[in-house]
Amino acid sequence: MKKIYFILAFMCLATVSVAQSRYINDVVVENLSGKVSDDQLRIDFSVRFDHLKLSSNDMLVLTPILCANNGTESRIFEPIVMVGKTRDKVILRNQRLNNEVPLPEHYQTVLVRKNGAQQEFQSHVALPFEEWMKDAHLKIQGEVRGCADCRQDLGDVLVSKRLIREPYDPQYKLSFIVPEGEPIKVRTDRHSASFNYVLDDHQLIRSYKNNASELDKVDKVISEVKSNKDITISKFEVLGYASPEGDYIYNENLASRRANSFADYLNATHRVTRNMLVVKGIGEDWKGLEEMVRNSSLDKKGGILDVIAMVHNPDARDAKLIALDGGATYNKLLREYYPMLRRTDYVIEFSVRPFNVEEAKDVIKKNPKLLSLNEMYLVAKTYPTDSDNFKNVFEVAVQAFPNDPIAIVNSAAMDIEAGKVQQAHERMLRIESDSRVWNNLAVTYSKMGEYDKAKFYFEKALANGDEYASYNLSELEKVLAD
User: Fold this and answer.
1) Strand order in the sheet with 40-48
2) The dihedral formed by the CA atoms of 251, 257, 263 and 267, expressed in degrees to the nearest 10
3) N or C: fewer beta carbons within 10 Å in the chain?
4) How far, CA to CA in Å, does 382 sit from each of 371, 374, 379, 391?
5) Which class for 156: exposed (0-12), middle (13-18), buried (19 or more C-beta within 10 A)?
6) Is-contact 81 59, C-beta < 8 A?
7) Do the beta carbons of residue 136 and residue 163 sit within 8 Å?
């Protein structure tokens, strides 16, 4: 409990020739609180008079005043009045006789002092909140009025240098994970080509429709991969997809033949040997159609998705789709959606040689996926921790490895430090069950004001042996106690 003691003294001249000094001391102000709620500043405190020895004829006037710390504004509140027993009788007699009552015009309360007894007054005041009040102090102005209504200013006593205290700012420690090195770095690149074929044919003809431009793209990808001395290609996988109209088995076979036609092209043009090629005819791409429809604004979107989910025979789905609205939606699918499903995907699998730190600093700018998380971490360690270069490494890491828990934990820590708490929180929720994320996840909950969840995850992290969880729990307790 915070207590502020101050001594109030006064001297009242009883006569011109004789001065009698009287002292009032040990008035205690405690339990001070200043809070903003509903655009109101509410100030609460208690005043204790337990040790006050007030002369019977005297009146003590305590006036709270809120003052801007820059001296530009102030607000005066109604005073608290304490009177001696004789002065109380005078006041009561004047009130009965309708005479002028020797009291301040407005006041919070008038108390009669019982010397030697414990007495306390709870003050509760409120006023419209203004911005300057965020940085303002509370003081109490003291005044004593004697038997002849002589007055002695006792000066001002500071109660609080800043009434509205800034909430405690916890200095949480964030977890960073040092990634382990990869003994062999295996990577895959996935690409897609939309070739055109003569109806019911599988021959890949460069001059047919837009095939030349599609094959030029393929040639560029394959040439870049094969010319890169840092990688060694281990496998090419070719996947043939068809649109869903027509017979399912026929489409599966056609997709397989077209995939093999593309594999022949890779073999003839880029000398990709057959033992490196894995060719699969996937056939009708219902999953691809479902995803496109789900992300579309089609009027019959729900009906299409129901057909895909509930009609298990692929060949029976066409009739159900046509029946949705007499074929209008089905024809729209044929024109605008099915062509995108007729494609050939190819996946290149390769291994990457290790890089030293200086090499990695160059590679991270050009093709970061060739690095391991450990190599990226070592690059980050070459920069000051408060530099943009240091922070950018972790952002690049999570972009290159968006599903890797270590990349997520480290990038989330950087987001928190940058004030991007919501972004960090959303990233970490994807791996909420991973114990390595619990400490940082708790930090985001605390910063979002969800203290129960913050405590829950700090405690889980502590039980799991997290090195920072105990300290962070103590910081959270300070926040809760503030």
Assistant:
1) 3-12, 20-37, 40-48, 120-128
2) -170
3) N
4) 16, 13, 6, 12
5) middle
6) yes
7) yes
The length of the chain in residues reads 482
- Token pair, residue 351, equals 């291994």
Q: In which band, very low, low, confident or very high, does the pLDDT at 24 lie, cut at 50, 70 and 90?
A: low
**Residue 333 dihedral angles phi and psi, to the nearest 5°:** -60, -45
User: What is the Cα–Cα distance from 472 to 171, expressed in whole angstroms?
Assistant: 8
- Do residues 93 and 41 make contact, with C-beta atoms less than 8 angstroms apart? no
Nearest Cα residue to 120 out of 61, 89, 80: 80
Residue type, 240: G
First to last CA, the chain: 12
Q: What is the mean pLDDT of residues 43-58?
A: 91
Q: Report yes or no: 254 and 202 within 8 Å, Cβ to Cβ.
A: yes
Interacting residues of 250 by C-beta distance below 8 A, sequence separation 6+: none
Q: What are phi and psi of 411, to 5 degrees?
A: -70, -35
Q: Using one digit for the tens of pLDDT, what is the confidence trace for 234-263?
A: 999 999 999 999 999 999 999 999 999 999
pLDDT averaged over every residue in the chain:
91
Distance CA 326, CA 310 (A): 20
Joined tokens for residue 225: 């991969």
- The CA distance from 282 to 267, in Å, is 21
In contact, 392 and 376? CB cutoff 8 Å: no
Burial class (CB in 10 A: 0-12, 13-18, 19+), 163: buried
- Token pair, residue 32, equals 């001070």
Q: What is the DSSP string of 125-150?
A: EEEE--GGGGGEEEEEEEEEE-TT--
- Contact between 58 and 42 under an 8 Å Cβ cutoff? The reply is no
Q: Give how far Cα 179 sits from Cα of 364, 391, 394, 408, Å.
A: 16, 16, 12, 12
Total-model pTM: 0.65
Sorted by sequence, the CB contacts under 8 Å of residue 308 that are 6+ apart come out as: 286, 289, 290, 293, 317
pLDDT digits (tens, 9 = 90+) for 315-335: 999 999 999 999 999 999 999
Quick: pLDDT tens for 406-433.
999 999 999 999 999 999 999 999 999 9
**Residues 155, 164: Cα–Cα separation, whole Å:** 23
Q: Which residues of 255-268 are buried (b: 16+ CB within 10 A; e: fewer)?
A: bbbbbbbbbebbee
Average pLDDT over residues 359-376: 95
